[in-house]
Amino acid sequence: MKKNIGQEFVEKTKYQYLGISDQEKELPQPPLAWGAEGANCIDLPRPETLAMPAVDLTQAIEARKTWRKYTGEPLSLAELSYLLWATQGVKQVTSRPTTLRTVPSAGARHPLETFILVNQVEGLRPGLYRYLALEHQLAEVCLEADVRERLVAACGKQVFVGTSAVTFFWVADAYRSVWRYQERAYRYIYLDAGHVCQNLYLAAQVVGGGCCAVGAYNDDQLNAELGLNGVDHFVVYAATVGKINT
Ligand SMILES: Cc1cc2nc3c(=O)[nH]c(=O)nc-3n(C[C@H](O)[C@H](O)[C@H](O)COP(=O)(O)O)c2cc1C
Fold first, then answer.
1. What is the pTM for the complete model shown?
2. Which terminus of the chain has a smaller tally of CB atoms within 10 A, N or C?
3. How far is residue 171's CA from residue 165's CA, in Å, rounded to a whole number?
């Protein structure tokens, strides 16, 4: 039977990856995660020491909803540590090497870095930090007094970005995925981010919090505030978490 052009194209390009990837060219893979780059670092309570209350998964899925109004009560450092672990925590570094984390990622490329705007967390000065997933630490990025205001403005003045206990910004380091998947990486990066935010929605309930996904932001403004060039490194998704009255 004569094949149509579409079938031939799919067969020829195997999984629809175009051309030869840098991995196939045997170019070295990029680092698994960004380092501290000389920033002041803060240890987070280790994930294995966290004693979080048991929450029934089925009930948590049923109860999940978006929360934009928070009590203003701070998160503890242990609670923040838990949320970071639940969204990007590294469980294993394999021999490939690659990281295996609490969330899935296409090809275990894990192309995301996490920035957080700390508004109300016990023991942390308000400001912008970056999560070092391999070390389970926070690196200070910007503690200027108006950083909160600037980030709220970059998120279309959505006030809960500044009234949350913490606001997460997930940033793609695109080459980590492009190295293997080329153009198709740009689909996987966004799918990966969806898994991360869903874990945050569920994990927020464990700390007596509520979560709101944030996709309405000014890309150029937000990338500039986080010091990203918007091409190789760019914000793909954000979310707020704060304590709530249920
Ligand atoms: C990709 C995405 C982007 C979103 N962006 C925003 C946002 O910028 N601001 C906001 O208030 N809610 C945002 N939301 C939350 C949705 O408005 C919310 O999920 C929807 O109204 C359904 O309500 P529920 O989550 O309570 O079921 C976003 C949700 C998703 C999945």
1. 0.94
2. N
3. 20
